[in-house]
Amino acid sequence: MAFVITSECVKCGVCIDVCPTSAIEEGDEYYVINSACIDCGRCMDVCPIDAIKGMKINGQ
Ligand code: SF4
Ligand code: SF4
After folding, report:
1. CA 10 to ligand 2 centroid distance, Å
2. Angle 56-38-50 (CA atoms, 0-180°, nearest 5)?
3. Which has more pLDDT, 6 or 2?
């Protein structure tokens, strides 16, 4: 898993809706990406504040 949600996350929930593998879940302080992530990068594309960092491996 090459993607991570940073503490900048404001828990808007937008990324959860676009994740094809339901790999994003609500953590204690902000959202977290679990092992179901396939590195598609969709979450990073939709995050309004660029709180998701990572490198796309699959998808475009
Ligand atoms: S990179 Fe893709 S699979 Fe991984 S958490 Fe983001 S939307 Fe889900
Ligand atoms: S889209 Fe960005 S700010 Fe919104 S819940 Fe996901 S990581 Fe947090």
Report:
1. 6
2. 50
3. 6
Domain containing residue 21: 4-53
CATH number, domain with residue 47: 3.30.70.20
Burial 14-52 (b: 16+ CB within 10 A, else e): ebbeebeeebbeeeeeebebeeebebbbbbbeebeeebb
Query: Tens digits of per-residue pLDDT, 5-45?
Result: 999 999 999 999 999 999 999 999 999 999 999 999 999 99
3 lines ligand 2 (CB under 6 A): no
- Report the number of distinct structural domains present in the chain: 1
